Amino acid sequence: MFSPEGPSLRELAVQAFSSVERGYDLLAPKFDHTPYRTSDRILDATSAALRPFGPFDDGLDVCCGTGAGLRVLRPLCRGRVTGVDFSAGMLAEARRAHPDAEWIRVDARRPPFAAEFDLAVSFGAFGHFLATDRPALFTGVHRALRSGGLFAFPVFAPPRISSRSYWVPAGFDAAMRIRNAVWRPPFVMYYRTFPLRAVRAELTAAGFTVRTTVLPGFGRRPDGAPYARLVVARKD
């Protein structure tokens, strides 16, 4: 699961019994050597899908982690590129890897921006938000964008209930709920709490016009539905 440069089981255990912020501070130096880092394949597919909508001026990576999203923003944005995250450890790694970008420690539900960006992206972060947090998150991104700006992120079709890919994340979510019921501080990380129908409605309520586009190269399910889509939400 991890490369030799990745975290040990002991380090993962310490992270799991920390808060989300503290856990990612601890994981940050080795994060890019774990499967949790968004793959270049997903980033490149997102960049290709967004290219017809651009070019853009200023770009924002929401919950940026160690800065992988710059692989998308840099080719598409002509102006400044900014990443926001609440983990100081993740931001320190992002600064080391990309010193020419702007990195700000902030709660993504309350970003300190007003009409400053033309494109916002996010990768692999939504499992750290409870459903009750999403409206504030989407409203904050909407406020940060200029009129006509886009908020984009990939989503993947749920696996078949008969598959291992269905039961592994379902089991993880169940274990996380038990952990959070008996241990403090909570560690919010759930894989199956981001249904596209609900997310689309919440984005619309925040003021976005929402569409999706297929990300090619990830195949289709037996029923013909694509495995991967890009949500493209435009600020009206």
TrEMBL record:
SUPFAM superfamilies: S-adenosyl-L-methionine-dependent methyltransferases
GO process annotations (BP): antibiotic biosynthetic process; methylation
Keyword Methyltransferase part of the UniProt annotation: yes
Molecular functions (GO terms): methyltransferase activity
Protein's name according to its UniProt entry: Methyltransferase domain-containing protein
Keywords noted in UniProt: Methyltransferase, Transferase
Signal peptide region: none
UniProt KW Secreted keyword: no
Occurrences of domain Methyltransferase (ranges): 60-149
CDD domains: AdoMet_MTases (cd02440)
